[in-house]
What does this fold into?
Amino acid sequence: MAEVDNAQQARQLTTLAIRPQEDSQATVVGAWLASLEDQWLAEGTYSVLRLPGQAASRRRVEAALSMGENGKPDVVAFYGHGQDAALGRRPSLNADGSVVLQQLLIDVTNCHLLDGMAVYTVACRSLRVLGRSVASAPTSRTTVYFGYDRSLWLPRSPEGRELVRDAVNRGANILHHRSLVPLAQQRYRTARRAVAYALVEANRTLRRMGPPFMLDALFVEDWKNGFGAIYQ
It folds into this structure.
């Protein structure tokens, strides 16, 4: 299997950014991804396909993942809610009070569409089953899945949330900027180590800030312990 992305150089490289933002928690982490999207679009180095809010539907996600070889994404970033075997939307309310039912956007029945992609998730628990399904599927191309194997709590303080945002966004940023680390598996190791190190430093920073931030420090420690990557 080729590690250098030579075959991708002849076409436009694309990052697919998915952020449902259907409730307060998903809105917080979705804003983290939105800040990266704005940065990436301003740079103009690679193409960015955005699926924010209601645009993040299963139909549109599958359509984006099923584009022809010259259009399908190389990197998929998902910031939102997860469960053991899926990424998706929780039940929510429209502005008129009507209920929007839960919708699984990516699960074990359609995860084959992620073949050959780098998948980066900021979501609970999906590394347990979905990540293993994605990374273990038969393929001739390198596939990687970044995620968490446990439920996550958002820090309560603005300082804690900023530290976690900056830590987790490092991984997505490294995957998006392919040319900085041309070898695929080296790029994945670099991203994993960068996020793990930044979460350790975030935990230390919060502990040094004293008792008001100790609960946030424990939350961040859980983020660090639950983070991982599975790749072929």
In short: The chain has a mean pLDDT of 89. Residues 6-231 form a domain with the Rossmann fold fold (CATH 3.40.50). Helices lie at 24-43, 58-65, 127-136, 158-176, 184-208, 214-226. The chain has six helices and eleven strands.
